[in-house]
């Protein structure tokens, strides 16, 4: 049965006739630069993302993800590492740094000037607590991105990757944090952007290695592989801790909901209001009640 399945899948999983590696390399190299239309597109993306975060509008935030040009230099970094192109790596890092700095500065100015102050900025808060699940999304999304870039027919995959692996919203969240001098927003969003960037670049590196891009210099560096592995481990560890914290908090909130449902079922109707508070590893719920005889 397994042999039949592999025999069936082998011709369908073949990639050679669907790939255009030269065209993909040219496309990646063209999109890493911060000049011409990309200057204006980045400005538009910053405004769209900042407004979307400011008004808690998910569709607007998605629009910013789609138009942002930040993916270009990140793909360039991943490709340059695999094909041993030091110049491409240097140019990609330089252009990414310029885009990141401009995005943070522009979004900071927006949040300083905007008169709107939300009581519960949920979309901003959503960018401050990255977990291992964000690592998985960035890695798999990056894989899809490099495959789509190398394909002869591009389709809409790159648009989906841009939405799944959000890059612009975290930068604008950093801008919000700077405008409020709030380190929670600054470092949480910075970590999310770092995760997305690193693992998209890693996926591009692995995809380029698997697909067989032509190298600029045919040299292999064992140290490079060790450095990449060590960097990945260091980056992943905090995200695992964060994921465990999120799961613990979610389970606590579910327990609170079950308690409130049980109270309603018993027709006690004594809970007037409740507030769940998470502080580090501790979680508690505050209840406003009309009956002191609580069930155990």
Strand fraction: 5-15%
Number of strands: 2
Largest sheet: 2 strands, antiparallel
Note the gap between the termini.
Answer: 55 Å
What is the typical, i.e. mean, pLDDT? 80
Instruction: Flag low-confidence runs.
Output: none
**Number of helical regions:** 12
Roughly how much helix do the residues carry, as a percent range?
over 70%
Strand order in space, largest sheet: 1-2
Can you walk me through this structure?
The chain is mainly alpha-helical and 296 residues long. It is built from twelve helices and two strands. It has helices spanning 2-13, 21-30, 37-54, 58-67, 71-83, 86-113, 122-125, 132-150, 157-164, 168-180, 183-211, 222-265, and strands at residues 271-279, 282-289. A two-stranded antiparallel ribbon has the order 1-2. It is globular and about 75 Å long. The mean pLDDT is 80.
Key traits:
single chain; 296 residues; mainly alpha; two-stranded antiparallel ribbon; 12 helices; 2 strands; 6% strand
Write the SSE topology:
Layout lengths: L1 H12 L7 H10 L6 H18 L3 H10 L3 H13 L2 H28 L8 H4 L6 H19 L6 H8 L3 H13 L2 H29 L10 H44 L5 E9 L2 E8 L7
Antiparallel strand pairs: 1-2
Helix pairs in contact: 2-5, 3-4, 3-6, 3-10, 4-9, 5-6, 5-11, 6-10, 8-9, 8-11, 8-12, 10-11
Can you give me a brief rundown of this structure?
The protein has helices at residues 2-13, 21-30, 37-54, 58-67, 71-83, 86-113, 122-125, 132-150, 157-164, 168-180, 183-211, 222-265; strands at residues 271-279, 282-289. It is mainly alpha-helical. The termini are far apart.
